[in-house]
From TrEMBL:
Belongs to the Mu gp47/PBSX XkdT family. Residues 309-378 form the Baseplate J-like C-terminal domain. Residues 92-182 form the Baseplate protein J-like barrel domain. Signal peptide: none annotated. It holds the Pfam family Baseplate_J. This is Baseplate J/gp47 family protein. InterPro entries: Barrel_Baseplate_J-like, Baseplate_J-like_C, Baseplate_J_M, Phage_Baseplate_Assmbl_Protein. Residues 203-279 form the Baseplate J-like central domain.
Length: 378
């Protein structure tokens, strides 16, 4: 039976009753009497002690622990919080007068003020152009406790401006590729989930849970699924997602194996390569690990019965669909039609809706992951 912590009011009443009992008087304590004030002060201190004991109880188990205690429990299983990572881009185009020099470390600004640093010095070629790589500057943790890594991600074609003018160099530069790879400091919720996974599953030297845990240990990776014999006997497939990366959560890179692998299969790039390289020294000697991006499968919806749904209801239904896809979706898995009905029906203003399409469970093909497409109201 759980302990019922007394409230401050209950403690005050108890203290007054105890004092009256010891004084052996029938009269009640006056509101501002010395005994009444002492009684309330003692009750307040006892209430603080109860609160501290509650806090200690939370930190005494991995399941409820927070902050440094959560990190301590996780460290016992060699699980550590994933730090923020900076977004990067390998192809940023500069232009200007041939021979102009751009020092390494030059700062570039995005239109919203987020800053990037040029990785290496550049000299404009005879045609007045040069290609360089940049890395986002992570914000001060005192100003942004999340690390601010995700906000550094940006689409290909993003325009950047030199922070300080450089003679002979145009002030505007263009990111030819997407600026990607940025991720925030891991949240307590995600950190606790990985820690509990380690406590609940004893390492088996390469079972499904091991591969999933290893993949989730890579910064930026938020979901992972393991498929046995994806490319035949002796192979293991790991599908990953990097939610919040500005690409709909789908990893930016190409599928393949670790660049550390001697065997001649196709080597991964980008996010897939980071995961493959991390897992390579941990995997069994006989396994060949393919790290892959799920295949985006857009699911269109037709909803009747609420043709004049408000914008709030429409947003709520979109969020409800996304939540079902996030929770139940996995490459090659199945989305239950009943789950969509239950989730949508909980949205305010959705009363009377009829889900015309899809009209049954949604079965994904191998590697496919569901994503909300268009939602049409008739």
């Amino acid at each position: 039976m759980p302990f019922n912590r007394p409230t401050l009011t209950e403690l005050r009443q108890r203290n007054r009753s105890y004092i009256q009992s010891e004084l052996q008087t029938d009269g009640s304590l006056l509101r501002f009497s010395n005994m009444g004030v002492i009684s309330d002060v003692d009750a307040g201190m006892a209430h603080l002690h109860y609160g501290y004991l509650d806090y200690i109880a939370l930190q005494s188990t991995p399941y409820f622990s927070t902050d440094e205690y959560l990190a301590g429990w996780a460290a016992l299983k060699s699980v550590y919080r994933k730090p923020a990572t900076a977004a990067m881009c390998q192809s940023v185009a500069f232009s200007g007068i041939a021979g102009a020099y751009i020092p390494g470390g030059t700062i570039l600004n995005r239109d919203d003020g987020y800053q990037y640093r040029l990785d290496n010095e550049l000299t404009l070629s005879s045609d007045g152009a040069a290609i360089g790589s940049i890395t986002a500057i992570l914000p001060n943790p005192a100003e942004d406790s999340t690390g601010g890594g995700e906000i550094g991600n940006a689409d290909a074609g993003t325009i950047l401006t030199l922070d300080v003018a450089i003679s002979g160099v145009q002030s505007l530069a263009t990111a030819n590729d997407a600026i990607s790879g940025g991720s925030n400091i891991e949240t307590d919720s995600s950190f606790r989930t990985r820690m509990l996974l380690a406590y609940q599953n004893t390492p088996q030297g390469g079972n499904d849970t091991d591969y999933k845990s290893w993949a989730l240990s890579v910064s930026g990776v938020t979901r992972a699924w393991v498929v046995r014999r994806l490319a035949g006997g002796g192979t293991v497939g790991i599908y990953i997602m990097c939610d919040g990366n500005g690409n709909g959560g789908f990893p930016i890179g190409t599928d393949g194996i670790s660049q550390l692998e001697d065997w001649g299969a196709v080597k991964a790039t980008g996010d897939q390569l980071r995961v493959a390289d991390y897992i390579y020294p941990l995997e069994t000697n006989t396994a060949l690990i393919y790290v892959c991006s799920p295949i985006e499968k857009k699911i269109n919806f037709i909803i009747s019965g609420i043709p004049n749904a408000s914008s709030e209801t429409v947003t709520g239904i979109n969020d409800a669909i996304d939540e079902v896809f996030f929770v139940e979706g996995k490459p090659g898995g199945k989305i239950l039609w009943s789950s969509l009905l239950i989730s949508i029906s909980a949205v305010p203003g959705s009363a009377g809706f009829i889900l015309e399409q899809p009209s049954n469970n949604i079965q994904m093909a191998m590697g496919e992951l569901p994503v909300r497409g268009t939602v049409t109201y008739i």
